[in-house]
Write a sequence for this structure.
């Protein structure tokens, strides 16, 4: 069964309230993410994996991008495991990530 992930469902799964502002933000982010439809169903699997490493997927407040982020206060081993998991996921689904300098954070650019 192939069920499309609606913006409302994605907001809820990522822990955001569903309102006019968040719906507009996630729609802009989806529209700005190349090939989003091809890997969107795998975002929630990544979210489930990242939780084990103090990580999560969020909407960026600076750019119309999804970001994959780990708590900066996490232990070094958790941050390393977080980064490895994010990179493996991106490689598996051919997703381009952009690393934020000096932080355990990546922007999801889109599928290559």
């Amino acid at each position: 069964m192939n069920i499309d992930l609606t913006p409302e469902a994605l907001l809820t799964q990522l822990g955001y309230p569903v309102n006019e502002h968040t719906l507009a933000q996630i729609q802009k982010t989806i529209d700005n993410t190349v090939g989003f439809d091809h890997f969107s169903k795998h975002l929630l699997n990544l979210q489930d994996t990242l939780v084990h490493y103090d990580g999560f997927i969020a909407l960026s407040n600076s750019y119309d991008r999804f970001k994959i982020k780990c708590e900066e206060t996490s232990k070094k081993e958790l941050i390393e495991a977080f980064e490895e998991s994010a990179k493996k996921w991106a490689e598996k689904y051919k997703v381009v990530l952009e690393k934020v300098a000096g932080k355990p954070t990546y922007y999801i650019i889109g599928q290559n």
Summary: The two ends are 26 Å apart (CA to CA). The helical segments are 7-13, 20-31, 36-39, 43-50, 76-92. The CA atoms of residues 67 and 107 lie 4 Å apart.
